[in-house]
Amino acid sequence: MNLKKMRIGLALSGGGIRASIFHLGVLQYLAKAGLFRNIANLSSVSGASLTVGLIFAVSGNKWPMTDEFIHHVQPKVRKLILENCIQTSALRRLPFSPLHWHNRVKLIAKMLEEKWGITGNLQDLPMHPFWEINCTTFETGRNFRIRRDYMGDPVIGYVQNPKLPISHMIAASAAFPVLIGPYVLKTEGMRWTQDKKGHQSEIIANDYYTLWDGGVYDNLGLDPLFKIGRGLARELDEEIDFLIVSNAGAPIHNQKHRGHISISNLRRLLDIATDQVGALRSQQVYSSIVAKNKGMYLKMGLTCEQIATAYANIHESELFVGRHGLHIDEEFTKKHLLSDDTVKVRNYPTTLNSPTAADFDLIFRHGYEIAECVHRFYVC
Prior knowledge:
The chain is of the alpha/beta class and about 375 residues long. The protein has helices at about 15-30, 45-60, 65-85, 85-95, 105-115, 165-175, 215-220, 265-290, 305-315, 330-335, 340-345, 355-380; strands at about 10, 40-45, 130-135, 145, 150-155, 155-160, 185, 190-195, 210-215, 225-230, 235, 240-245, 295-300.
């Protein structure tokens, strides 16, 4: 298989600043492997939307060339994340911003503009690669997709060529319930149709729609790139030939029930539901994409040795037909992070706080190595 001749789709999960850095490491590997220019579509949720937004911002709202990303964009993104804490900046500003007390998501958007330089509106983004920003529509419970040429969901309809601030759409994608709160999308002056291209009849929209974190619906961001067609046949979107899923979601840990009414309990129930949806989606990816050699699944928290062993097991179960050689290169695996470090990355908290330089580099390295190991053992 020659991935350098394929159109690659990236589904980048949520997970706060941990996910932002992990995905940045994955992108660094794709650049070093000569696959960066083959990225045709990016689907992002929450923390991943922060990463993609930063890359575009540093690049003047265009997608960078490979060398530009490696030597200029990635180092500048690292510097912005380390030196400008979005969460702390928002909390410091909140007591003096009464207009944002019940609209914290727009304060996050304002910090993205001031601290990270994420400016412009959706029409300033390039047509290639397509960037799909994922939210969850509260009113319909469906995936609300935002991109340069349209936004909406299949129940409420679509708006063509939306002219909304990029920072607002990123903040909406990261609008985690309770902590940040919803983004209210006012529809005045917008033309809504039943189809994405605006060819069908207009429909009457609500005065506003309430958008939550995209991870509430699907924390992997699979929906725009991985379709379930007629007869439940699963297939890749027509815009891509190969799918890479990068999952930096946090694991579920043991937690005690706290009283009868607790915000912590509500968050716990949401985490459980999100984890179950993620597990089902991951199984779909393995059975319909990875097993058929149409994609890769990058899971945070694994060691290179675990990935190599999993490849050997899959090969022996004949899911990969026509492959040869199960020898695991121990010298290769020893160069990568050991179990204690991968567990540390996996357990890093899901926040928007800036990490230490050491933690940034550890998470970044882990993302890079996961991509390298999966590419080596599953595809090459």
